[in-house]
Recover the amino acids of this structure.
């Protein structure tokens, strides 16, 4: 049985970034296990022309160590694209290129293990025994480790009544590119949700309507199709300074603050909303009906399969009225929820819970236990109520990872930024 310092479950940007940072610490061994055979990032939503909502500096490591060989700029340099990016003159990263960057970083990281799924975690006296299914060899591997890090990411959040419906017709946005050709089979396509993914798909299909005849619907339960808050002063809430402040609030204040700041995480880029409006305007010039419906304050209550297509029951929340529409294809832009592994249930009575679904997380991103333990369970996800609405923003990932590594090793290996924003979050008396 191989003994290591930490097992990182999940090779997404968070887990991969932690593995990258750990490479800089001598005599500290980690392994990153990823069940997929590739590090593709949201492959079902890699639409042409789409970009991240974060700047290129929000890569795996730059904001903590810009000298690292794993920076996005070094990726561009290694692929002879640095000058091309310079002339691109855009802070935002094309989504396809970010996915390629993650693959490249993973290929450089010797501690990454693809096609390995952590199937169980058992507690030992000094830490944990981790069981891993190796899909390459077909064998089960066992590792002994002091610490375990949950980087299991998120999974689609869809209503239960969707599970029994054919996935070729009713599917989450994460499957869009896989189902895009099949959408052509439908005379009516309906999108549910109003975030960035919903808007990107609506715009993609709206452009297709120039050459194809179909009805396109877009409904959201939100009060409108709102632009994501991008003001620089507001964006400072995505900072280590704000997280330190947020951690001092009682749990009820933290929950309320997360809801109040939802526009920082949800909503649509202003440029995309503008493009959608311009496309609608151009398609309406000849006076022909647009055959598209865009409606807010409307929630999806049920989907019933018919002999041909589906009947959607919708609820207009302001009018408090139910109505039904027909649709051949339904795309659910209903967001994501944390992916919590089944084995964590074993620790259910040993973990401190802040409410029924949210476990307590301390300043070091450790899941708080009822009793002290020599080894710890750390988490990279499910942090919005413990560390704030921006806690899982890509730009904060290096800071979070450094905090975890400092706690694991008992030493400060990286300089964590302080006073990184112009705002002050703690009350203080002045001029008295």
């Amino acid at each position: 049985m191989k003994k290591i310092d930490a097992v990182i479950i999940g090779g997404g940007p968070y887990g991969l970034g932690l593995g990258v940072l750990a490479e800089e610490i001598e005599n500290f061994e980690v392994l990153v296990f990823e069940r997929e055979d590739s590090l593709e990032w949201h492959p079902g939503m890699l639409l042409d022309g789409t970009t991240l909502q974060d700047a290129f500096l929000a890569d795996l490591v730059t904001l903590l160590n810009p000298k690292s060989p794993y920076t996005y700029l070094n990726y561009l340099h290694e692929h002879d694209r640095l000058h091309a990016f310079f002339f691109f003159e855009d802070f935002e990263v094309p989504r396809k290129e970010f996915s390629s960057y993650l693959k490249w970083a993973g290929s450089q990281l010797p501690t990454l293990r693809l096609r390995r799924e952590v199937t169980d975690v058992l507690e030992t006296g000094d830490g944990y025994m981790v069981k891993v299914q190796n899909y390459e060899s077909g064998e089960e591997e066992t590792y002994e480790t002091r610490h375990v890090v949950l980087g299991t990411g998120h999974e689609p959040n869809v209503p239960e009544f969707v599970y029994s419906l054919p996935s070729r017709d009713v599917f989450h946005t994460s499957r869009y590119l896989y189902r895009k050709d099949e959408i052509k089979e439908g005379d009516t396509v309906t999108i549910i949700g109003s975030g960035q993914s919903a808007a990107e798909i609506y715009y993609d299909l709206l452009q297709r309507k120039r050459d194809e005849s179909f009805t396109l619907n877009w409904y959201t339960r939100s009060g409108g199709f709102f632009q994501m808050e991008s003001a620089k002063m507001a964006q400072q809430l995505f900072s280590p300074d704000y997280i330190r402040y947020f951690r001092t609030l009682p749990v009820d204040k933290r929950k309320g603050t997360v809801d109040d700041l939802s526009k920082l995480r949800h909503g649509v880029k202003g440029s995309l909303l503008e493009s959608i409006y311009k496309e609608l305007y151009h398609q309406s010039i000849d006076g022909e009906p647009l055959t598209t419906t865009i409606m807010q304050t409307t929630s999806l209550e049920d989907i019933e399969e018919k002999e041909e297509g589906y009947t959607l029951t919708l609820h207009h929340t302001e009018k408090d009225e139910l109505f039904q529409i027909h649709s051949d294809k339904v795309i659910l832009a209903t967001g994501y929820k944390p992916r919590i592994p089944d084995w964590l249930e074993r620790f259910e009575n040993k973990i401190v819970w802040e409410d029924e679904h949210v476990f307590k997380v301390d300043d070091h991103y450790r899941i708080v236990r009822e009793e002290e333990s020599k080894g710890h369970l750390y988490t990279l996800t499910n942090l919005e109520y413990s560390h704030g609405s921006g806690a899982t923003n890509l730009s904060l990932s290096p800071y979070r990872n450094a905090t975890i590594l400092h706690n694991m090793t008992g030493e400060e290996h990286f300089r964590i930024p302080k006073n990184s924003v112009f705002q002050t979050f703690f009350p203080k008396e002045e001029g008295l």
Summary: The radius of gyration is 23 Å.
